[in-house]
Amino acid sequence: xxxxxxxxxxxxxxxxxxxxxxxxxxxxxxxxxxxxxxxxxxxxxxxxxxxxxxxxxxxxxxxxxxxxxxxxxxxxxxxxxxxxxxxxxxxxxxxxxxxxxxxxxxxxxxxxxxxxxxxxxxxxxxxxxxxxxxxxxxxxxxxxxxxxxxxxxxxxxxxxxxxxxxxxxxxxxxxxxxxxxxxxxxxxxxxxxxxxxxxxxxxxxxxxxxxxxxxxxxxxxxxxxxxxxxxxxxxxxxxxxxxxxxxxxxxxxxxxxxxxxxxxxxxxxxxxxxxxxxxxxxxxxxxxxxxxxxxxxxxxxxxxxxxxxxxxxxxxxxxxxxxxxxxxxxxxxxxxxxxxxxxxxxxxxxxxxxxxxxxxxxxxxxxxxxxxxxxxxxxxxxxxxxxxxxxxxxxxxxxxxxxxxxxxxxxxxxxxxxxxxxxxxxxxxxxxxxxxxxxxxxxxxxxxxxxxxxxxxxxxxxxxxxxxxxxxxxxxxxxxxxxxxxxxxxxxxxxxxxxxxxxxxxxxxxxxxxxxxxxxxxxxxxxxxxxxxxxxxxxxxxxxxxxxxxxxxxxxxxxxxxxxxxxxxxxxxxxxxxxxxxxxxxxxxxxxxxxxxxxxxxxxxxxxxxxxxxxxxxxxxxxxxxxxxxxxxxxxxxxxxxxxxxxxxxxxxxxxxxxxxxxxxxxxxxxxxxxxxxxxxxxxxxxxxxxxxxxxxxxxxxxxxxxxxxxxxxxxxxxxxxxxxxxxxxxxxxxxxxxxxxxxxxxxxxxxxxxxxxxxxxxxxxxxxxxxxxxxxxxxxxxxxxxxxxxxxxxxxxxxxxxxxxxxxxxxxxxxxxxxxxxxxxxxxxxxxxxxxxxxxxxxxxxxxxxxxxxxxxxxxxxxxxxxxxxxxxxxxxxxxxxxxxxxxxxxxxxxxxxxxxxxxxxxxxxxxxxxxxxxxxxxxxxxxxxxxxxxxxxxxxxxxxxxxxxxxxxxxxxxxxxxxxxxxxxxxxxxxxxxxxxxxxxxxxxxxxxxxxxxx
Amino acid sequence: xxxxxxxxxxxxxxxxxxxxxxxxxxxxxxxxxxxxxxxxxxxxxxxxxxxxxxxxxxxxxxxxxxxxxxxxxxxxxxxxxxxxxxxxxxx
Lengths: 1001, 91
Prior knowledge:
The structure holds two protein chains of two kinds.
Chain A lengths: L13 E10 L2 E7 L3 H7 L4 E4 L6 E3 L11 E4 L7 E5 L10 E4 L13 H4 L8 H5 L7 H11 L13 E14 L3 H12 L4 E4 L17 E3 L2 E2 H12 L5 E4 L2 E7 L3 E7 L6 H4 L3 E15 L3 E3 L12 E3 H9 L8 E6 L3 H11 L3 E7 L7 H8 L3 E4 L1 E7 L6 E7 L6 E9 L2 E5 L2 E3 L2 H5 L4 E4 L4 E4 L6 E3 L9 H16 L11 E3 L23 E3 L4 E2 H9 L5 H8 L12 H12 L3 H4 L13 H5 L16 H6 L3 E5 L2 E6 L7 H14 L2 E4 L4 E6 L3 H8 L12 E7 L5 E11 L2 E6 L4 H15 L6 E4 L4 E7 L3 H8 L14 E7 L2 E7 L7 E7 L3 H12 L5 E2 L2 H10 L48 E8 L11 E2 L12 E9 L4 E9 L8 E5 L4 E7 L14
Parallel strand pairs in A: 1-7, 8-9, 8-15, 9-12, 15-28, 17-24, 18-19, 18-24, 19-20, 34-44
Antiparallel strand pairs in A: 1-2, 3-4, 5-6, 5-7, 10-11, 10-29, 13-14, 14-15, 16-25, 21-22, 22-23, 26-27, 30-31, 32-33, 34-40, 35-38, 35-39, 36-37, 37-38, 40-43, 41-42, 42-43, 45-48, 45-50, 46-47, 47-48, 49-50
Chain B lengths: L2 E4 L3 E4 L4 E5 L13 H9 L7 E7 L7 E7 L4 E7 L8
Antiparallel strand pairs in B: 1-2, 3-4, 4-5, 5-6
């Protein structure tokens, strides 16, 4: 630490507790309470990064969230490193490791700086313009461009930290704990309103916290002393919650806000252990008071980006709060009164202030007089035209401004300095107001955008609302708060306030120089390296909208979202284009206000909590028996059960053969199950399925196809009539929730007159399916007292039964074409029934099979899977399932659409079977089908939807959709693949047991 | 993020609801009598108003009831909610 850069100041910084940290590999020291930026400045380090495009040396410029230059990489652990963090916001802790970004090999010697010498050749949109041709080369260009544009490094391993999400409800949320925010929070809490005050710093108080200037006094004490007592009084308020280190990230409609609370980032490495790092608060506030303050603007002049050029108010905070001198010999450059506060602070701390260069004519406010009394030299109506010093400013060139301010006159003279404070006035932080949908208005006098209309229960107070002077801040804030909260607080009525009043304002967006614009580098957006010349070029090239200029020049598109640069860009555009600022508007302020870590965004929803996992009651058995699982929606379904050394193909072939040769069993618990009751249940089914239901006998099952109103197949499944007014419907696994919600929609909105009640019972029942020629024998062992004769219990019927006195429903239905039963039993008994069936089936070599075998078996029978063989463009006619469309029913969902001009076309894609000429060749699902091989381009007639090698037929089979396929049975087609063309023949969709003999085998 | 006043449950977060498009489009009682154009009008055509719009919403992760909403799409202000079958409270 350079001793001579610290002054004794123990108010905010604990100068007895020394902290060591590393920056760019070098061990340095700071104090508890420092930010990384203040500690670096105390170590006389200004140069912390290189600029994005020209790799110009850049230094710390601010002391807050708007910092464009000092963005660093924190941490060097592969799992815990974070890029693009602002050194001005990082609180120093023991063991902090940080490094510069966008430089190679080092910040002091950066190869990319060669770009600066070629900068006349790299204007706005250079990359767009140059690397456009030929388009195919972009991938090659991109590789090199990305490499030289350093944006920090991402961690390569999973984040070891953990993060929280929490909800917060309050009557009043106050955003920003500066003087007006503190008044607001205190007033609200004192009036029995549940109040939350948040601030992104570690201490409340804003800039008043360290204001010790006799030009700003309340009741005869420094404004900081008065505020200190106010802050202390907050602790007594029971209704008030204070959250520091909490940044309001997003303000959405209906006063829904997101705030990120930093919990451990300021702690030492050992203290961080096992604590939640950051917490995202999801806030619903009845009323919101925005008191986010204002940020100082830079000035735009030639070479205004050198290390050592810092916002004047930041220099003041570094000296008054951190006790850090930003230099030994400073100059200040301003267009308003605030730089004089800095001059006085510096002077009092024994730092040499060369001069204040002020573009205004002489003014005579309290603070200016104070500076004059201290003997500080002031150049009225002068401007800085250039700066020198490559890695740190060492001198400035000054000239007199002409009367109209458009050019410089007289003789140029120089002044040596190691730091230049700049102040271009103040920009209210209206980001959150606009995020919430509020509209802005432009105030010409102050050249600021201010909150105007809002639809929400909110107000903006203090300097974010355009009040920049102590007395008006307090007076107007109190007035607004009283009105907004409908109360009458007189606590602040009789304060005796002294404050310096600004008497004159002058604003020049782009300051003139003795050189033409093309020869100068007046930076607008420091982070993205765009200059005033770039913006003017964009206008010359025809860009008019501010949004277009922004994207073309990238002004305001950095990680800081142009917090410092946007106003000047707007000003220069307005001036050049000859329009008013208010008419030009602003670019959109988007959340988050400052970048959020991914960890904060996802919170606890990582790893196994990323999504809900649904398991069947029989899941454990599948796991114990080494099943591979498939994700079906949120379900884990047994996919296949490989035996030792068995591949998936081998396992599926074995399972498929066993199911047809003797017996197989499937866990079908995931199928959607909807219990339907009510006196109109039959009529309801008539309306939602294509076929007729009124005549279905009690105890019988029927397959149904459900359409959308547009006539396209939506879902299918078997529904069983349990009683006169009671049905149980099954749906596809993935469609269950959507089908229920669609049915509810019709019931509640179109047919409220129907007496029908729907209940999802998917999770209440486990379903064990047994199929194959021996299934009957196995079931008779499991439920001996059930008559399984074809006469008593035929295909497509159901019986109530019980296993060990536990009631169950047995359906004789089949998705494989085999003689098959489904046992539905209360979930908790699912696994034991499954095991009982497995035990009973052992003598018949019963084989558990998974979803893959199920798909193969049904494809052999030509049964469709909605979502695989259909894609939302298939009607039942397209599927060759005309038989299921009732001719007698007057109406059902989708009926009218089945004879729209489009759905009755002959040449629609229709479901067909495909057989490959080579029976061993298995087609790829999704492969295209053509009728010619020699023509280019060739018409794609359709594609393969399902394809398997059938062990039961000993050949390859496939289902496909083909244009006009119904009429093409027997035709030869081609499936062109990458290295070959496969010859196929169009067939019927049913490959096995066309007469359904096996159902009753 | 809206705060929606479900007519059955009261104020709840938007994340509990799903939107169901324009309200008061009545499914024709006799679809077979309609021409292709008339059916298409019911099936496909929606107004998508900028301004006050009548919408269907479902309290999907709550009571599962459908209801209607009067919402200004230009500023997301919800002027009213009302039950299915009821007349819109404002024009």
